[in-house]
Task: inverse folding
């Protein structure tokens, strides 16, 4: 990307919050910006894989994609 270039991100969170099929637990986690929790719930509820759920919520939920903290082995 060139210096000064900007890109836009598309968030599905507002659409998910308005959805009637989400559980209250999932909606609450989204409102509280705890995106890993609702991603896991979406994976269970809709049989999504970790990449699909992560893409919807703009979060890394796949084990191989999660950053590791220094000093903590995986």
Result:
């Amino acid at each position: 990307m060139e210096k000064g270039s900007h890109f836009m991100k598309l968030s599905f969170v507002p659409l998910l919050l308005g959805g009637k099929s989400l559980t209250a637990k999932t909606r609450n986690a989204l409102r509280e910006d705890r995106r890993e929790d609702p991603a896991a719930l979406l994976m269970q509820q809709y049989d999504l894989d970790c990449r699909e759920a992560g893409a919807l919520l703009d979060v890394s939920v796949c084990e191989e994609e999660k950053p590791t903290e220094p000093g903590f082995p995986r």
Notes: Helices lie at 13-18, 24-31, 36-46, 50-57.
